[in-house]
Each structure stands twice: as structure tokens, then as C-alpha cells.
Amino acid sequence: MKSLFVTILAAFMLMSCAQQQEEEETEVINEGPKTELATAVVHATEGNSIEGVVTFTQTEEGVRVQAEISGLGSESLHGFHIHEYGDCRAADGTSAGGHFNPEGMDHGAPTDDNRHIGDLGNLPSNEDGVATVDFVDPMLSLSGENSIVGYGVIVHADEDDLITQPTGAAGPRLGCGVIGVANPDM
Ligand code: CU
Ligand code: ZN
Predict the structure, then answer these.
(1) Would the N or C end of the chain have less CB density within 10 A of its end CB?
(2) Which ligand lies nearest to the CA atom of residue 119 in the structure?
(3) pLDDT above 60 for 1
(4) Global pTM?
(5) How confident is the model at residue 124, as a pLDDT?
(6) Which residues have a catalytic role annotated?
């Protein structure tokens, strides 16, 4: 009778142990937010007046980037990047750090293989100072190790020359936003 009790007790202990292990494994798998849709509201830095929204949609070919930014100079190009911190606390946007570059590559054009993941090229404004773009970038992702969710979006005063290291010489930061999980009902 005593040995039966010990056997049952041992069985219960094994079961609870297995359950605990399962919970731990679930914790390890869950690395960061999961979404098919992310968004960044771009706010002007001090002394500037741009505003707009960027959305990021996961597709099979990469991430579709749709942006509409107003308050830019007319018919001009403005460097457009994902930066390494989702931090717009500094009045001039410098708190967003450098370009998002988890693979340790050089600065380049969006069409280059050797580029920062955050290198999205330039926003072209129309005569009213509004830039509207819609493209798919094969290097961006909303999940996994190089997910862009949680990082920064910067719109620059000048054109990204796509060559100068490590910034593209795109000048001061006109606006800053943070990429977060989007509400799909918006
Ligand atoms: Cu930038
Ligand atoms: Zn870059």
C-alpha cells in the first residue's frame, strides 16, 4: 500500500515538472511583438513643422511601406530612414541614434545589397511640400531577429546621397516617429 502511494506521488511530481517545462519553452519562443501591420506617427522636431504617418505591412515579398508626410519644402528630396532607437525624446531627434543596422553593413541605397536595413532612400515632395510613397522593401521585416517594430523613423532636411558613410549626408532631422504595433481597425 505504501509503495503504491509513493508511485502515485512520483507520477504527480513528474507531471507537474513536465508542465513547468512547457511553460518555460513558451516563454522562450515569445520574442517581442508579433504583428502584420505597424505604424509610426512622425512628429516635427523643434523648429520644424512636418507631420505625417508611415505604415508598414508585412507581405510575402517584404514589407510594404506607405508614407504621407506634409510640411516639407516643395519639390525636394528628404532622407528617409529607420533608426536604431525608437526614441524621439531629443528636441532635434538625435536620440533616435544612427541608422538601423543590425547586420553591420555600410550605408547605401534601398536597391543595394550592402546597405543598412534602415536605408529607405529619399522621400520626394511635390510642389505643396507633401511626399507620398508606396513601395515594398525586401529587407524589412515585422518579425524575427531584424524586426523593425520598436525602432525609429526619421525624415531629414536634405537629400540622402546614398553614398556618404554612415549617414548619406542627409542633414538635420525634421521629424521623428516610433514604429509600433498598429490597430488594424484604424
Ligand atoms: Cu536618418
Ligand atoms: Zn544608412
Answers:
(1) N
(2) 2
(3) no
(4) 0.84
(5) 98
(6) 81, 83, 99, 107, 116, 119, 156, 173
